Amino acid sequence: MTMVRDLDTRGAQHCETTALGVLLRHQGLDLSEPMLFGLGSGLSFIYWDSKNMGFPFLGGRVKPFDLTRNLAARLGLELLVQETTSPRRAWENVAAPIDAGRPVGLQLDSYHLDYFGSKVHFGGHVVAMYGYDDHDAYLVDTDQQGGAVSTSLATLAQARAARGPMAARHRSFTLTAPKNPPSPQGQIIPAITACADAFLNPPIANVGHRGIDKAGKLVRTWLQRTDNPRRDLPQAALLMEKAGTGGALFRNLYRDFLAECLHLLDSGHLRTGHGLYAEAATLWTEAAALITKAGESGEAQYLDQAGTVLCELSRVEREAMRALSRLGE
């Protein structure tokens, strides 16, 4: 058995920030999960639907791995990313750093992992790997998936080789902190303003505040969008609240990030943004509950109410991000 020694294997709410926390604590940098999410400019929104999808998807964060890239750039971390089409080479890319005493981040399809409770394909899942033996790999996943867990080497190989939306080619990565890293406090304003600018100026209409407004209109049609509303609508709501989002489609995490920033920066714009994101978090949970009710009852009135809440959310988050974008002035 080969294990990284003296590793803090704490899980957290969201997969990518869980893995980042493990890798960075091993480098002597211990930041809260909301701070990791916020410094990585992780918050976003997308209304995703296409002909080959069974049902629309509401996403609340930036694309998989963008958060890691953003965080590494902000904190001056050396990010070494390896991808390959060769399963043999992919294993070598993981085993070598672990043999040298370093944990490794992996992006993979959670569907294949032995311990994973929900058997849904998701190629953007991220875990930290810290050991292996002849049969199993030892990983750190989110708290809801068990924290420090294990899966067979065979299922790990399947998960890493999987193709499909958001999947990567056996992606693995390590992080190395510089001897004198920049202060996380000094990176708060650039992280917040970059996130706000992207949210306020989306490239397409189903992203950012425009995407939330679009969702508010289209959610009203969801009973006609599915042959099985009792399955699909509660599942969509569950993904908003429970699927590694920290609740309220990542808005709880961003609210808590802004609250942590308020202890470090005195700013009226920051206070405004925090107050509005506290309101937004409550409204997202309300929207998810209404979507669940619509699926369970088959009554369109709940989707109409959810649509009204989402249109209000578009306004609230737009106001919040406008305030936060002024932090750089």
Could you characterize the architecture of this molecule?
49% of the residues are buried. The chain has helices at 15-26, 33-39, 66-75, 87-99, 153-161, 188-200, 208-218, 229-241, 251-262, 268-297, 300-325, and strands at 2-3, 43-48, 57-61, 78-82, 104-108, 125-132, 136-140, 148-152, 172-176. The strands form two sheets. Strands 1, 4, 5, 6, 7, 8 and 9 form a seven-stranded antiparallel β-sheet that branches. The chain folds into two domains: 2-30 and 78-176, Cathepsin B, Chain A, CATH 3.90.70; 184-325, no CATH class. α8 (229-241) runs antiparallel to α10 (268-297). The protein is an alpha+beta fold and 329 residues long. The chain has eleven helices and nine strands.
The total beta strand count reads 9
Quote the average pLDDT: 94
Approximate helicity band: 40-55%
Structural class based on helices, strands and sheet pairing: alpha+beta
Shape: globular
Low-confidence region ranges: none
Counted up, domains total 2
The H-and-E topology, N to C, reads as EHHEEHEHEEEEHEHHHHHH
Terminal Cα span: 54 Å
Number of helices: 11
User: β content, as a range?
Assistant: 5-15%
| Biggest beta-sheet profile | 7 strands, antiparallel
Radius of gyration: 20 Å
Give the SSE map.
Layout: E1 2-3, H1 15-26, H2 33-39, E2 43-48, E3 57-61, H3 66-75, E4 78-82, H4 87-99, E5 104-108, E6 125-132, E7 136-140, E8 148-152, H5 153-161, E9 172-176, H6 188-200, H7 208-218, H8 229-241, H9 251-262, H10 268-297, H11 300-325
Antiparallel strand pairs: 1-6, 2-3, 4-9, 5-6, 5-9, 6-7, 7-8
Helix pairs in contact: 1-2, 2-9, 6-11, 7-11, 8-10, 9-10, 10-11
